[in-house]
Amino acid sequence: MPITETDLVFLESERMDDTAAGGGRMTGNVIADGEENNIFPDIAPTDRVMGRVRLGKIFAANRSADTSLYLGAHLAISHRPADPAVDVILFAPGSWTDTRAEARDYVERYLVRGPYWPGWVYGNHLAGQRAVQLYQLETTAVPEVGQTLVLIQDEGDEEELEQYVRITGVEHEVRTFIDTINGIPSEFRRRVVTLAISDALRYDFAGLEVSRYTSTTARTRLRDTVAAAAAHYYSTRPLAQAALTGERTVWVDTLYGQLVPSAQTETPLVDLDAASAALPLTVSGGNLSLTTSATLSPTAALYLGAGIVQGSLTLVTGATTLTDNSRGDLLSGATVVGAIDYTEGVLTGVSGGPTYGGSKTVTWTPAAAPGAVSLTAGLAVTAETRSLNWTLTLLPIPRPGTLRVDYQVAGKWYRLQDRGDGGLVGATSAHGAGSLSFTTGSVLVTCGALPDVGSEILFFWARAVDTFDRSAGTFDPPKIRATLAHGNVVPSSLDLSWTVNAVAKTASDDGDGALTGDATGTIDYNTGALVIVPALLPAPGTEISADYQYGPPREKTFDAPLREMDGSLILALDHTNLVAGSVQVVWNLLIEEYEAISNVPAEMQHRPLVDPYKTIRDDGAGALVISGGTDGTVNYVAGTLQFLPDVTVSIPWPRYSVEWLGVNGTNPVFRNLFTHFEYQPAAATMPHDESGQVVVRYRTSGGEGSVTGEVLTVAELQADLTKGYAESLIPNATRFLVGGRTYADRAGVLYYDLDPATGAGTLGGGLDYGSGVASLSDWAGNVAPAQSLKTLLTQLQAAIVDETCFRVAIAPVRPGSLSVRATPLLDGAAAINVTADTDGVIYQAGVCDGTINYSTGVVRIRWGGWVNDADLTPEEKTEVWYDAEAVIERNSVDQIFKPRPVYADTVVYNAVGYSYLPLNADLLGLDPVRLPTDGRVPVLQTGDLALILHHHSVEVASPVAGGTVDTTLTGVARVRVFDANGLALAADRYSLAQDTGIVTWATPLDLTGTTAPYTVEATIEDAALVVDADISGQLTLNRTLTHDFPEDALVASAYLFGDLFAQASTPFAQQAWTSEWSDERIGDPILAQYNNLLYPLDLSNASSWRERWALLFTSTTSFRVIGETLGDITDQLGGSGYHDIDHDLAPVNPLTSTPYFTLAWEGWGSGWVAGNVLRFNILPPANFPAWLALTVQPSAPTTGQDRFRLLLRGGIDA
Fold this sequence. Notes:
The chain is mainly beta. Among the domains are: 112-227, Beta Barrel (Elongation Factor Tu (Ef-tu), domain 3); 307-367, no CATH class; 369-467, Immunoglobulin-like; 476-493 and 504-553, no CATH class; 554-655 and 674-698, no CATH class; 718-792, no CATH class; 802-914, no CATH class; 944-1046, no CATH class. Helices cover 2% and strands 45% of the residues. It contains four helices and 93 strands. The strands form 18 sheets. Strands 4, 14, 15, 77, 79, 82, 83, 84 and 93 form a nine-stranded antiparallel β-sheet that branches. It is elongated.
């Protein structure tokens, strides 16, 4: 018989309350249509204050008396609550009989345990705390606001404790700690991170005191989390704009529904780098080798004292060779026996692994991690360009291991990282992949899913030339720096003396500022500053005796001196009998036409446009030595000078490359990048006007004071490791030898005699990363310096860019809150400080032009301004930034963007991001920390069955039997009639002409028990598959719409169950019951069988029950009837009560008073013995369960109702 509307019902679950035991099995209680509180109770006043989520379980059932199919059954929410603070979401259960506690666990599996976080819980933490403190290596990235971590104590044990914590604030600092190694105090540094968390700790967690050892084992482990999104959610969203017949695209207000209430809060972000990120290790020198007897075992680490290039390490001990697999594993053959910390240079044995004692030799290539990524680029994702695959050529070419690519899908950012060989990988393969050519800079990125329209594909990288391995170079012998008590030292008057190993040593100045003798060096006669470079290093604390004469020099200034006929100057001083070698002359120079010299516009110059001064000295023999000009003369006796003040100087000329990055929309995008300096000679003359000036300093014989035996104590040696390079040092990348000792850098502190067993060393000095100067406080005395470099990695001070792309750390961003600062390349120009307006525009005329997407947090800024092409001079069009292909039409005028580059490292931003504070898990009954930060989940996704619905209501005051109602719609899918109290009228009280939309009242018309007026609600609908769901709310369907839908129409995602009818598996016989509910026979087949072909189980949709059944024989004819969830019901069969092979078996379903099934006695074969079992399943039955979540956001009371409607939709065989 055909299925009727009355056969399709919703049934209550076993417990319709919001408790841990709520839900459970299906009952026979029909949920009354339209009755108030038939699933959820009223909203309590405290729900409005605190927020609330309730879970309720129902069953949708086909209760026809036969096994007629209800085809393609699916369930959807057809009407949303009118209250904007209330949302209803549908999701599938884990099983037919699950409870709320099990459903909660299922929902909370949105986030699950991920890999170990590279940090340790610092100190014991007590229940109730709202902060967690960690310590980790300095180079390890700190957790981010909004990130979720999981604390696990005694992982894997029966008493394991677990809590997921969401981070609401992060503070961190590098601290210095002291421990004792072999009785000697030793310093080490760690980053201490304090995390504010959304929920208080529920348990006590045991932590650690800070340790230098990375192999430390802790009771409480810290893990990152990964998204699993176990549950699939369904709900209904309103259209954002009308959709018309023939269209395949509809727009909804959002793809998300509110599963967990949350409160929005603002998080200030202050002075964050636009593109900072830790860089991979880079080679810092040639191969190093260490031979030691220190033990390597699961409890004893081996410290090498320098970083390690991945894949470069080998350890040989006896006949065993251990190798490095580039992934942090130390291998013996193919077996992992240890772990490698490449950054710290530490080897650790794995738990349960072997112990390696005795002598061993470790060989590796040293490495260090540079500073920060500074180059950025972005590709806009539009509806036209949206694709899984993206290509871009990055110039300058990224250094291996530095490129990372960020893209956004469904509001979540995903990252692909170059693993060092050009392969781009994500946290999992599902996140996508890509490749990078180190030859051409070409990048191919394949996203794990289609990126969101309106977002960007962001590229962050460092160029290969940013760092330099200078370990093959040399440096000058270490110097002693000292300053005499008196300045204005008389040339040729200084004598120094000291002892080395009881042997007297001396040195003196040569009258021209140089030291000679047992030490070389220099003296600044004006200040008395000495630089002493001894041939043999004196011991620390050695005293140097200084004898010298001193007195101030004389000075005369000549303002605008007149030139002779040959252009020279003749200057007469106020004194005669000058001291040879004491004459210094300084005058100012003027360089004409700076722009013409360099062909580089001022805004792209590295150096200020400031004219220089020229300084010369006499050589002690009557000549004034002038580099770049003609030497002059000095008459010491007469006190006169003559020289030509016109010279040639070298001007720095910055070189740039112009690179095409691609297009932004339809506009080409170019970048100008500084590459190097060239120096060009230029004419420089002394000004001929009143600004010309010459200053002469000199000495005359007699009148000086004298000092004998002034003591200079040697407390420090200095060595300039980067002499000749305008580069800074990379931390922890320097090792060098002085006087037979090897010094290694650790965070700017120099140590020597490093112990491989502990990593500890003896403090030997400090290192200035900016200047490259090493200052030794402890060294070996009485030996030659014998200086040499082992490792030395340097980097350029800054990268220069004219475009910056980045994303704000927290999104969405409060409109109008973003400000960006940068330092322009033009020296002397004011620092740039721009603010985005509330529309997301970042603009300052001639300075920058950019945008921010407040939803995604993506920022794109070009530094410079638009200029009219027609206004440019021919000279300007020859400048490096100009390219005719970059000219575009803007506002009906041909314009080109003229860059005003900035230092990439200086781009920082301030903003206010919106973050969400999940509410108390105990009050909610769900742990919101394991769900998305804003409590929202996707309810419209690619692959969903979508129903596009429009409900139109007509009010009828007094229906008349046989009368009609025009719904004004055509092609109506269904009609429902409700009375004034919301109760639905039975379907036999009216009929519908679907084509015309005319409703006809029944004759006779019985309205007993109902209240006027009546509402006739007609629905038009389309069903389609969502082939693409974009975060913007755009849904692309696999078929066109057949109706016009107004803006207030709805789009519902449907929980698709399939054909709904009672069905049974084929029974199978088993020799013995093993208590295992297997769907396949266990053991060997037996002769006894049931003939299901001729006598199939007799079922009905109305009484079907999802169950695995076992008929366990107790004799050759009798058996017991056992259900997997119902248990042994032999004594509650009802009906005839027979349970043997001589009678029909028909156990009664007490919910319907009809049999679950009927098994005909004629189907039994012979040969049954006690212990045999017949197994069959009724899976699935003609009903299916679903969970509903009703969420109340903290809000003020509203007049809108929280009523919603469910739609069970399918087809029948008419």
